Amino acid sequence: MPLVFQTNAMWKYFVCLLTIITACKTKNVVEGVTYTGEQTIVYKTVNDYHEYVPVTMNTEKTEIVAYPSPKDVYRNGQLALPTTLANGYWLDNRGVNANTVFLNITYREYAQLTEAPSLQKMLDMIKDKNPFESIYNLGTRNRFKDEVSEINYIIKKNLLQQFKKVK
Question: What pTM, to 2 d.p., does this model score?
């Protein structure tokens, strides 16, 4: 018996689901060329750090290797706070990775500084050296038409494991 869709809404749901499943299995590689672009990083932390400035440490987490200037904590003219997602996840807007930690200074406070604190001061300001439960890379951000709703769908349908787990 052929599959019959009872409503237009059901058909749209099916098309959306098929698109997401296909996107999950699509790689950004064609004939050995990798397409680059801003990555879609989704993460969950052990505590709520969304207002705090992220910095990057070395693999051993003994020194800070990258940090923003107070002028660089903006994205599109607004503070680069992560975007709230479903089930306690966050969409990164700043550059989070497996070696990221959060300082005990908020984006708003940091943006008001005239210069970044010294590396030693930043080391003393670290809230947690292991702040992440998990981090996923969902590929380039331009792959999504409605980023937040599509990522929330992926999270709610437990499809994150189909993407690259960073941590």
Answer: 0.76
